[in-house]
Amino acid sequence: MNMQRWMVRFFNIAASVTTITYFNRAGQIFEALRRGICLPLPRTLTLAFLALGLAVCAGAQQKPDIAGNYAGTLGPLHVKLHIARGPDGALNCTLDSPDQGASGIPCSDFHLTGTALNFKVPSVHGLWKGTVAEDGKSLSGTWDQGSPQPLKFIRETFVPAAKPSHVDGVWLGTLHAGTQSLRIQLHVKSDAAGHEFCSLDSLDQHAMGLECANTIFQGGDFSFDVPIVHGHWSGKLSADGNTLSGIWAQGAQLPLTFTRQTTAMKAEPIAFDDALPPVKLEQLQSVLDRDLERALKSGALAPSTGAGIDIGVIEHGARRIFCYGTAKPDSIFEIGSVTKTFTGLVLAQLVEQGKAKFDEPVRELLPPGTVAKPAGSEITLLDLATQHSGLPRMPDNFNPADKDNPYADYHAANLYTFIGRHGVEKPADAPFLYSNLGFGLLGQALATRAGNTYPALLRSEITGPLKMNGTVVTLSPEQQSRFIEGHDGEHHPAHAWDLDALAGAGAIRSTAADMLTYLQANLHPENLNAADGTAEGKTLSAALMESRKLQADVAPGMRIALAWMYVAETGSYWHNGATGGYSSYALFNPKDDFAVVVLFNTSIGNNGSFADLVGQHVVQRLMGKPAISLVN
Description:
Lipocalin; 20% helix; alpha+beta
């Protein structure tokens, strides 16, 4: 499932339900954050979290000489600063956020006066201000992007090897998963002490500069980790030194062979359409018709693709649905990881009803004897709902018999076997880590506590009170007739995904109309008036308010409520999703009183999520900002 990237789904096509869009195109990430939108987690983990950008920072030549490369950390994120001197002697700089796959981000107003240094990053309204050490080896200061945080840069002292190792250089490979493929570029270098270093680019996802760890070359064996995506590559160098043949492991294992290149490839820049005055809802149809014209003729919505998209918008209580391609107003789509927001709301409902507690250990909701009580801190229900449990993205016993329907044979017994073996101890200071496993476990635990199935719990707690009759896990014969056919990222027909034990992570199917009802309830829970009069309906308003409360940090400028990601600068809550044949995007903004949902019958392709792009584009049009181009 996708969130984008949060979140985001780097190198994880065949077996991913949704990942935060962590790894969207770098320029798109920064433009999106600047314009008040968050890209899916991931491509996305989205994420689209810290907006540091590629800059040409102008400044005068000063002493001490600070030209060079610097590294620092901002919370959990690594940040690199590159300061160079131009032909005219003026200093310039760029910033990298390697954990987000972003490099070369623009600064402005670069000033060095004596030992005082400051520069801005206008794309994210950021400012760094501090002082330079006398020897120029460190820059101590503060990063301010709404709330000041310390950010110290230390000069990197990498000394290249006098003679490069046999694996040093630029390598290019293609990762194949089903009908999809990703071009992966690898940069390897060694230092004077003989240590190897590398970084990775996912060119088709515009995820650049992902740093490696544990890079080892010994004999003919070469291996490295990519911590930000929990990936590992290992293989061998060919006798002629021009091929690296090996396996990429990220949950599943896939062959990935690299070939030596003479020059590195660069990702294409992101195009933006010119800004318009804020578009009113009654004007949006004509604007979308024009902005989607090329996509409908020869792009993502061309007749040959079989693609269909429903775009739902609420603005100050008024609502409209816009349909393109093969989609109809009542078409049913898989919504992927947007399901997680429903699971978070189910948790809030049970808490409001006194049937569960946020700080309750998940162990206590599982069948007796499933997992032993740990010696240390336990994973709670709130930890699962805020992606701070420390659990991995997927269980290691996930081995689908049918790659086209990978979650269908992962049952409660499989989940309990994994949990019993892995345990439920919470790591100290567990950071944000997007986990389909975590939300699947949460959904299963809540259903067990309620003595019901997840689909029945969803119906009783949310879709029944809100009269969302088109939002289900299992389709009726009538609903099956409206279930639009899904397609993979290359527009081939794709099998629907059926989730069992991990249903809480991404099992829901829905319509644009139902999703607007859901987003309207999130915008104005105070207007529900006990919903349908049932016991569950009477607590729904309070549960919705609770589900919006911010609970934990994701990254600077972004927090998480119950599943919903929140962008502090704009006041927007968002999530996205993807399955094997569908993708989705949902956002609501209580401050400006609007919401957008996009449902697309095509999964994420080599160029990322079209659903995300359309959702961001619509929000930008509503806000009167330059809009991400939908032409390509």
